[in-house]
Design a protein that fits this description.
The protein has about 290 residues and is an all-alpha fold. The protein contains 14 helices and no strands. Helix 2 packs across helix 11 and helix 5 crosses helix 8.
């Protein structure tokens, strides 16, 4: 890759990795599901011109949009709001990669060799090592919810197999539109203080929403697909193994997240397994090799 494109991919990793920290800061002010609703409200305002009917595939599009926009984004924000250690969650979130491979085998009948099965086993061993760390066990509900949301994301990854040729702007527009109503309804049922949070919002609070909506989705995904037009998946995807390192570094620096030896060891094992899966999947051009930003 050209040096300018290496800098671009590192910038994407920094933006996506920083999303955990920015979201955590935003959730100090906003209820989590309501925060997700506001994120998609901003996105649909920008992406509405890209909203168009996809003949013959709207059923798949709507299922994907609901799974990603409603189920995934509501659960991941709950996990982040419940934890006091976003760094560990940023690492555990990578478990969506082996989940995606397993679902591809079960649902799509994809053939997976022993190297990827080894990577899957390694990744789950890493989660087990991290999961029994006292610092992680302080927030068991957040740990469980992050594993749940990672599985939901893997379901969305498999659904995306039939949407790969559609513009990412169109896909994000449909995700935003479909998510608005259910997220607002869930927030009204499960949360309180939305109006007070909205009226009491200042530049920092709206900046967090703008970051997650515009920088993470539009700049991050737009730059990612720009790189895919110049290089193959096998060249681009492995760089995104750096994403958790940015998330962890920023979590420690800004949120004072604690990293124990067990978290580092378990995280290293998990990421080693994800690396094996990613390199093998990227070589085959598999959809689950593509990184997913939160």
């Amino acid at each position: 890759m050209r040096p300018i494109h290496i800098l671009l991919v590192l910038a994407i990793c920094a933006i996506w990795g920083g999303n955990f920290v920015v979201t955590k800061l935003g959730l100090v002010h906003f209820p989590p599901i309501f925060f997700s609703f506001l994120r998609f409200a901003v996105l649909i305002l920008v992406l509405f011109p890209f909203l168009k009917i996809i003949p013959g595939r709207m059923h798949r599009m709507l299922m994907f949009a609901f799974t990603l926009g409603v189920l995934h984004y509501s659960t991941i924000l709950l996990a982040i709001s419940w934890t006091g250690n976003t760094a560990s969650l940023a690492i555990i979130n990578q478990i969506h990669v082996p989940f995606s491979v397993i679902l591809a085998v079960v649902i799509l009948r994809e053939q997976v060799g022993w190297k990827r099965w080894f990577g899957i086993g390694l990744a789950f061993c890493g989660v087990m090592v991290m999961g029994f760390d006292p610092e992680v066990l302080k927030y068991p509900d957040a740990l469980i919810m992050m594993i749940v949301t990672s599985f939901i994301l893997s379901c969305a990854n498999v659904m995306a197999r039939g949407l790969a040729d559609i513009s990412p702007m169109t896909i994000n527009a449909w995700v935003s539109l479909v998510a608005l109503g259910p997220l607002l309804g869930l927030s009204a049922i499960l949360e309180t203080g939305q109006l007070a949070a909205l009226t009491g919002s200042g530049p920092w609070q709206w900046g967090a929403i703008a970051y997650t909506a515009l920088l993470v989705t539009l700049v991050g995904h737009g730059s990612f697909y720009y790189l895919l037009r110049h290089y193959g998946v096998a060249q681009v995807t492995p760089w995104f193994l750096l994403l958790p390192f940015f998330a962890v570094a920023l979590g420690v620096a800004i949120l004072d997240d604690v990293l124990t030896l067990r978290i580092l060891a378990g995280g290293g094992i998990l990421l080693a397994g994800v690396a094996v899966i990613t390199f093998r999947s990227a070589q085959k051009g598999a959809v689950h090799a593509l990184p997913k930003a939160q």
